Amino acid sequence: xxxxxxxxxxxxxxxFPDSPLHLGHLGYTYGLAGKKAQALKVIEQLKQWSKRRxxxxxxxxxxxxxxxxxxxxxxxxxxxxxxHSNDMSNLKADPTFDPVRSDPRFQDLLRRMxxxx
Length: 117
Fold this sequence. Notes:
The chain has 117 residues and is mainly α. 64% of the residues lie in helices and 0% in strands. The protein contains six helices and no strands.
């Protein structure tokens, strides 16, 4: 139901046009739906915003997860970890990260964050 999910995320972005979180979720959904060009545009927009204001690296990692680009996702998750991003508190339970949960880098990140096993 990617079409419906994209429509809902687009509504959220229209309601909250300055929200990196909503834009990140839209980009994530674009990626899952195979709309690579749109997902990459979202990443570029988030990076542009980050030059003027705070954008959580976690939001950018979401889009890379949707695209299946694990190395980039982990690079941005590492930035979020280093920045002590409060979004990281959701990492262990967030189903968005299920595709990388078995990756040793994910387990290492959880360990460093001192999440219980």
